[in-house]
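Structure, all three chains, one model.
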Amino acid sequence: MPELPEVETVRRGLEPVLVGARIASVTLNRTDLRRPFPKGFAKSLTDRRVEGLDRRGKFLVARLEDNLCLVMHLGMSGSFRITDGSVAAEVLIDRRHDHVIFKMSSGAEICFNDPRRFGSMDLVGNKRLDFEPPLAGLGIEPLGPDLTATWIAERLRARSTPIKSALLDQRNIAGLGNIYVCEALWEARISPLRPAARLVNRRGRPTLSLQRLPQAIRTVLHAAIDSGGSSLRNHIRTDGSFGMFQHSFSVYGREGGRCRRPGCGGTINRTVQAGRSTFYCPRCQR
DNA sequence: AACACCCCCTGTCGGC
DNA sequence: TGCCGACAGGGGGTGT
């Protein structure tokens, strides 16, 4: 499910319920997700006030009082939902996969559900956030000021790996996943198969194609966030509603469909790169 | 360095 | 209807 727009959607949903409230209790329904929960997980969190909820790439970071951070990843199928503790109309979620329940001082309950259990939760000291797993080594924020064609050119000029793989690599840019890389490359009219270094000229400067890429990434991510993310299988918003951006895909999941670029007339192709589906228009993406 | 391939785990979908 | 393989938005590991 969750790439940057979905995680940001979840962050915005959780923020008003979490921030300013105190964690009254934490219930773990199992001992691990992708990894075991840290030792003393529930105890460390209990009675602590939440001071902020940030996003870093695809991670959510809850900043707690006394310099402790709860770093969460949704994996492929993780979702949060908020209830007021009363019986709610929740038809869609299989409660077997409710792994963590946070009860807040306000009475709100925040439940983490993750069927595939590829998600994670870690505790990290505030000052070590950028230097310790799981955030250590993460690349730049694609919606921050660092993402420029020049930055990408410098970073990728010696890389023969396909541009799609480079964009998926969280050590370069943090937050892009399979869907939005496909979408952004279509937006920028760049073939996902193109070696990254071939977007850089002999002087190490970005080519015209690469100059389109940063804005294409921003455009796609902002549009997706504005739609509440994409709901394909597991992504739901914290209030149980669906994101809508899946209806706006230009290429993802559209194998055999007509290219939506005006005047192109190409047919969307599917191929596999590094074991993952790539969708693109071979006619207008070069 | 950069591939290809494997794993983690569960659910869903299409084909037979 | 049921079974079975392919596939899924995540990350991490191996070996070549």
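Residues 208-226 of chain A form the longest helix (19 residues).
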